[in-house]
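Prompt: For my understanding, could you write out one protein's sequence and backbone structure tokens?
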Amino acid sequence: MKKIMLIGIAAVLMASCSESILDLKPYGAPGEGTFPETESDIELAVNGLYYGLWDDAAYTRGPMYWINASDDMITGRINAEVDTYRNFAITASGSAGIAGRLWNALTPIMGRSNAVIKMEDKIQMADQKKKDFLFGQAYFLNALVHFDLAKRFGNMVEGKGFPIPNRQDQLDMEYDRPANVNVNMDYIIADCMAAAERLPYQAELDPKDYGRPTKTAAWAWASKVALQKGWNCMKVQDEAGAQAAFLQAENFATQVIEATYNGVKCHDLMPTYKEVFLIENNFGKEYIFSSQGGTFYAGSRPNMLPGMMLENKGWGKYNGFGYFVPTKSLYDEFEAGDQRRAVTILAPGDKFTYFGQECVYGQGDYATSSPTKMQFNKYMHPFSIGSSEANPNGDSPSTNLNVPIIRYAEVLLIRAEARIMQGKSGKEDLDKIRRRAGLPVKGSYTLDDLKHERRCELAGEYADRHSDLIRWGDAKATYARPAYGFDGTQVWAGRNFRDDRDDVYPIPENILLLMDNRWENNPNY
């Protein structure tokens, strides 16, 4: 995947000197760039999409600022801007910060992928398999970022879907916000299906292409989108629409779960939870699609989340950032005997390996500055080995560990939730999750059981606890409660989450101005 990223960087650099490659103007801005017109143009343009994924505000750390609002974590060091977002205190005029950077990072990927897609019927390639792979990637990456934008900037209020540009004419600025965000969900699902038709299975990829999306990644993402769509329908009392969407989510997830290639099952749970987060398993059986790691910096960063969750200043051995530290609420969520807790959280007295040395967290040279006296542990494998697995530039603390965007365990949880919401049983999938965690299975499972397993399984990942609480309708009550550290000290006051505003970000004011105020901002901003 490092090769992919370097090729992407080259494509961006070439864009400044070649009229046949897309320029990199922000999505939605009119310009005089030309579109890819030849096979080599398409290949460069597709590779260039990956460059955008590793923008600092995209899939290096950007989504975690949104997830940081959840009850799983707090901001581990002083940052007034991040704290404003966590406290739901942003205004439309202040939305050029984290929200604006996220918009400006992800919307160009939509724009450039759309520019590729519109050329599919116009470009002839002798190798149809290669053509399908290239265009399949464009469809998938468009669906990936479209969903993350839509759920953060669009909702079910009339006229407040996320703006969908004209794919066939990207200089067309005369487009409005859709009726609601489920219009986006349908659009995204259609793109996932187009991607799945064109993409290969993981087993068909040349190892140099590992990290690019696959057929099962497209199905998995569609299952996540359809699940969100079902809950969106519930918000507006559309029971029939909700049931249809939950069935859709179940069916997409089943395609992933039952997928085989040459008689071999495509995906499965790793034998132990710890193995999911080892470098050697970056592309193991549980992998579906990840934010790629790497130990270099060349204008765009590989994933930095491991370094951002590492102790601030890394006990003098590496420049950890100390952001996003776990709460006592998350620690207490794990049942006795749940093997996931030790993998997920470092708590006082826990032994861990750091740069080849056995240490005790919170003691002696390894005392912590974390306000909760805890640290996320699941991305520590690179630092257990040492400098060979981490970027020598500590100001860009990436590692060789990939961070999941969606993995097989989440697909099991999506299917279980979709089934429960249809009045069916989620036992088949939740039993697998609990057995791997070292826990006894249950005779049956409720929605509350599903919520518990999802929290314990996916804590600190891009799976997105904050969005979970919003779609379940649990955010207001959950966030009214204070957050506590390991010793019971209150570390964050309860917060006022407004259901009529805080389920989405405001659209940045500069974007509204760019569109001549054609769009209204989100409610109550």
Observations:
- Residues 1-179+499-525 form a domain with the Serine Threonine Protein Phosphatase 5, Tetratricopeptide repeat fold (CATH 1.25.40).
- The radius of gyration is 22 Å.
